[in-house]
């Protein structure tokens, strides 16, 4: 028999390089999808509370469990109302989008002064008149939303600022929508609903410096190995005397920005007791007010800010009707 070629698939994905820590714990949205219909915000922010177990009826027609009761994990996000603090206007230039003007509300929240400075004289009417004259040259209109952590179980008062694009309609309709919600509270249920698919943007849980076995999943060497076992056998040839970037090496693991596409909203509500297990979520506590339950897992630890966005690539098939939840397991996570 001839010599068989050894099959040694590479270890770890090269899709995300370099594997460095995220610069921003809030995550960053670089793309906003185009939607049809009336103007609306394309995103929202909430805090991850934790995971629970849900029993529901499988409604995907192609599933072998179609029409049967199945068990699925779900993630609960605490989504208190956000305050629309400012309108930001952008124009297209050869170097990309450039800020044209911003319009702030007259009386911003007091907690906002802890993280950002706001104009002492917003000059709201003057800036709106200037904007309405140049509305035909406007490319994008975005809203600056301010979170309210005082309404959650998080032991902090400093809010988070996120910038969300307004989609749908034309520029004038978007401006009227922005003027209507400026200075008011915006709720998650006003933007998204049950059985809708969304993209989830956030930063994963940090693991610190890890070796190649945990970081890339390489095989542990033989017990007879002369030196290390939790290492790779060779980092490269003598010629060329260079360690290639594809070679698994120790380094930072976790605390990366990731986007989870097409998460299905199973349930939304205004009473967090409906989805809070006995004793509260581990490392979070009780969900006091508005919440959203997403099917599956969501990146990041408890209390981390998670951004929810309209889907960039909607699934080809969407089950008709609302998700049929038969039971939500609210037994204590701590075993009490």
What does the model show?
- The chain has 3 helices and 15 strands.
- The protein has 336 residues and is mostly beta strands.
- It folds into 3 domains: 46-79 and 194-200 and 265-303 and 313-336, Translation factors (Elongation Factor Tu (Ef-tu), domain 3, Beta Barrel); 81-186, Ribosomal Protein L3, Chain: B, domain 2; 207-220 and 228-253, Irregular (Ribosomal protein L3, domain 3), CATH 4.10.960.10.
- Strands 1, 4, 5, 6, 7 and 8 form a 6-stranded antiparallel sheet that branches. The chain has a 6-stranded antiparallel barrel with strand order 2-3-13-12-9-14.
- It is globular and about 80 Å long.
- It starts with 39 loop residues before the first strand and ends in a 7-residue tail after the last strand.
- The model has no long low-confidence stretch (mean pLDDT 91).
First-last Cα distance: 63 Å
> Percent range for helical residues?
under 10%
Q: What pattern of helices and strands is seen along the backbone?
A: EEEEEHEEHEEEHEEEEE
> What is the C-level CATH assignment of the largest domain?
Alpha Beta
CATH architecture heading of the largest domain: 2-Layer Sandwich
Strand content: 25-35%
Which consecutive residue ranges, at least 5 long each, have pLDDT under 50?
Answer: none
The general outline is globular
Q: Helix segment count?
A: 3
Nearest-angstrom radius of gyration? 24 Å
Number of domains as seen in the coordinates? 3
Biggest sheet descriptor: 6 strands, antiparallel
In terms of structural class, how would the helical and strand content be classed? mainly beta
Defining key terms:
six-stranded antiparallel beta barrel, Elongation Factor Tu (Ef-tu), domain 3, 336 residues, six-stranded antiparallel beta sheet, Ribosomal protein L3, domain 3, mainly beta, Ribosomal Protein L3, Chain: B, domain 2, 15 strands
